[in-house]
Amino acid sequence: MPNPTTVTRTRRTQQERRESTRKALIEAALQVIKQEGYAAASTRRVAAAAGVSLGAMNYHFATRHDMVAAAFDDVFQRTTVEFEAEITRLRDAGEDRIGGFLDSFWEIWRSDLFTVWAQLWVAATGDPELYDVLSPVEQRLTEAMRSIMVGLAPADLPPKLWLRRVSLATDAMRGLALLQHFEPTAGVRRRDRWPDTRAELIELLSRRN
């Protein structure tokens, strides 16, 4: 008769292996999309990049869209956790919340995760099924960020006005990030536009009327 403790340990190990394989596939999908674009991110290509069999891929993700949805959800989870942790740190440290907020948000936009996000959204413009997969995750990300940002509003500023200004700031940062990530500079070094943009956004967000 098998030892119950041994059976439990075996089952945990199998579950851990499955989770490890799933994480490897998600990370490989993100890397392939970032480096080669969404068109290259077939299930076969991602399985090879992760070093697992196509059968293992099919076990975790039945379709390419399922795989991409999981990868995008991973981007959402990482972004939300990192941003919320940084904002909490700023609040607890009593540092300049507006400047800190902008710097934290800018780190997200200039990261590799933003490159993946942009690649997927561009691909979704011509792929309705991909858009249907990504849209709910994007909405959850937007709502999560919104709930965090409401708590940063100055006490003497209406929350709705604050959120409108934050939306403008976010759009500006997103646009600048797109330029920095995808502008065809052919190796030419461009002036860093972030310091000037940051100063203008601080002025916008610091207004009391």
UniProtKB/TrEMBL annotation:
The keyword DNA repair does not apply. Residues 19-79 form the HTH tetR-type domain. SUPFAM superfamilies: Homeodomain-like (SSF46689). It comes from the Bacteria. Residues 42-61 bind DNA. Keywords: DNA-binding. This is TetR/AcrR family transcriptional regulator.
